[in-house]
Design goal:
Largest sheet: 10 strands, antiparallel
Distance between the termini: 6 Å
Strand content: over 45%
């Protein structure tokens, strides 16, 4: 298998605090923001991919995300992926109050530093070791009070939608 590009099948973000029961599954962006001091401003994204068509050896796997914009107080936003085992969530029902709460398996990080660019999160080890056909990730910010808007699967430009790029041998 020389490689595969898997389109995201479900994605959403959640927001805590007073927004904990809101659903953002139909939004064209995924908002990422670490805000430990006030959960109402904290946001994290969830991505789900179907890898049932992937066969053979996996040499590398990266989530490719398009940066729509950075928040006005942000010049760079470090972002990390966590592989999660909970596949039960759906983009139409996901809320902060019912999000998967497992910490997840820490994977690669990248820094969103300019609108109109892509970031790549290396998730090779989780993808290699995950036996199921549907695989999920939690995407979080790493620096307090900075945030970014990433394109979701509802983005009108197909090339900006989240994908999982798998290279095999």
């Amino acid at each position: 298998m020389p490689g595969a590009t898997l389109q995201v099948i479900e994605d959403s973000f959640v927001r805590g605090g007073t927004y904990g029961s809101d659903n953002y599954g139909s939004q064209t962006t995924l908002t990422i923001k670490k805000r430990d001091s006030d959960a109402s401003y904290a946001r994290e994204a969830y991505l789900k991919f179907n890898k049932s068509t992937v066969t053979g050896t996996i040499n590398s796997a990266k989530i490719k995300l398009y940066v729509n914009s950075l928040h006005s107080n942000s010049t760079s936003v470090p972002i990390r992926a966590f592989g999660i085992n909970n596949q039960a969530w759906t983009e139409s029902t996901l809320k902060y109050s019912n999000r998967p709460t497992e910490a997840g398996t820490s994977q690669g990080s990248d820094t969103a530093s300019a609108a109109g660019s892509y970031i790549y999160l290396d998730v090779t080890s989780f993808v290699k070791n995950f036996s199921g056909s549907v695989i999920s990730f939690r995407i979080v910010g790493l620096t307090e009070d900075v945030g970014a808007e990433l394109a979701s699967k509802e983005n009108t430009t197909a090339s900006r939608r989240p994908v999982l790029q798998i290279n095999g041998g």
